[in-house]
Amino acid sequence: MDAFEDDIITVKDMVKTYHLGEVEVPALRGVSLVIKRGDFLVITGRNGSGKSTLLHQLGLLDRPDSGEILLGGTDVTRLHEKRRTALRLRYLGYIFQEFALADELTALENVMLPSMMIESISSSKEKAMKLLDLVGLGGLERHQPNQLSGGEQQKVAIARSLVNDPVVLFADEPTANLDSVAAAEVMSVFKQLNEEIGRTVVMITHEQEEAHLGNRLIRLSDGEIVHEE
Amino acid sequence: MKSEDEAQQREAKALEEGPKISIIERKIPFFLISRHLLRGNKWTLALVIFLMSVAFINLVFINSLFNGIVEMADEQVIATTSGNITMQPSRGSQYIENTPSVIARVRATKGVVGASSRSTVPASLLYSGIEGNFQIFAVQPSGEKTTTNIYKKVMGGSYLSDSDTDSIVIGRQIAGGKGVEMNATSFKGAKPGQNVTLLIGGQARQFTIKGVFYTKYFEADRQAFITKKALEQMMPAAAGKASTVIIKTAKKGDEDAIIARLKKTVPGAQFLTWKEASGLMKSVTNSFVTIDALLTTVSFVIAAVVIFIIVYVDISDKRRQIGIFRAIGIKSYLVSSTYILQSTIFSVVGVLLGSAIFFFAIIPYFHAYPFKIPLGDVTMYVNIGGFIWRAVAVIVVSIISGMIPAILATRKPILDEIAGQ
After folding, report:
1. Nearest 5°: phi and psi at B211?
2. Which pLDDT belongs to residue A1?
3. pTM score > 0.80 for this model?
């Protein structure tokens, strides 16, 4: 990760509008922000405030209508999809609200998969085993997603997002589908990753208590940053 | 410090250019497909493969059935009426003269396994007050046995022997009886041991029905045979003459080459292959070939559509998974390759299963219970070239059917894929 200076991601005046038939729905209205190395940035806001849209743009899963996203100083906004895919693989980890695991793969194989793009199966397996241990799932590596609880599935997703040693983790309401105990466990994993390993985390949450777990907080409203601390 | 700077520069360059990914990533489709086969829904898997095999069987069944009809019809023509080659008198002549010598020369020709002279008997038959004009031939029974199989098709009584002078064998369509297709124009139930009268050139001569044969080929079953010896007793001038010589070759398909040799052996004589001699039958079989081509085209389109729908539905069902794979950085071509590989495996297994069902169930069944048509009993006849062509076509269609939805899916926005929109 040495190529990245302290400013890992810089967003400049990002605008995104959805078109629902003839109706235009502005999702982001000129958002600018900087994500620094080691940040645990929590993004909050009401439904429809643009949180997920912002995270999708940062995670290179979608493209803004205008504005720039600089990853390590390089403008990645209009890169070809092949390059964006490669950047997602190597530098960005993404955790979805619904876990987004492959049903036919075991926990271990789900975690291994991104690593297998760039490494041998044996080395991917070794890394995946370590990460499953790190998130507290040692011994469950042969379980398929449908044999795991929601919290365990989300931990598998976290382990998968870490397997290629990304510069930043994006988490889109990672505890929304979990009970309070599982949610607390998952949050403690994020906290551990940020505080003990120094991993940069950008997380969306609705939960007030989770909002204060980060070291930075942004509140969005109607596609604009209305509060930052 | 220097090495840290170099590492920084390398990372910066990689970020600028996009990370280089090695050939190692090509294991991904094999990895994913192996897991799908191991852990996917077995019923869905079995159903997809079964449908593929049914689509393939449909393609080969129709073709093999029509091949069987054509092959059976060809065999019937060769075995009961014309042999592989029919020799006719030279232009301007009514008869082939000096037949024993001609037969000997023909039999000595390379590729010929049998020859038999036939003389058309210009007569009618009278039985129980019913007079009918049928094709009546005078033959040398021992020679006939080397060229046709009528002697094996006697269903009542027995076949002629060379020394018979007052015996006749008649086809089932002449004998008639209950259930006989052409009963209306037959003797309506003539049986072996009964007498028929041969009316020839003002003479009437009694013959005993020695046997009734049934080849299942209606044209052959409208024939009657007496011996040469009997004809020569009635018409001494017919001695040593023949209307045609039926020639049996060792192998079907060699007729043209053998005719070329026969033309040197018997100069002046005319030779027709069984295809040329079969006349109406050839038109019938050509019609079957045309219908087969038409049905094959229709079956192929149906098979292509069925396979496309099967694969399309299967892959559409996995759109969310495709989106997830892309989101975590799996290259689009690897994702689409996975589903193309899946279609390939399904189609290959489908074709193998279809072949197994076809060769070990359908063909033996039709051998045991042939499909009965007025020309004869039809069994499946597999043209290996056509079979392979159809197998390859099914696999290619499957690959294309997998390729289209897989490529389309990987071109959609990732978030739409994950949301299943």
Report:
1. -160, 155
2. 43
3. no
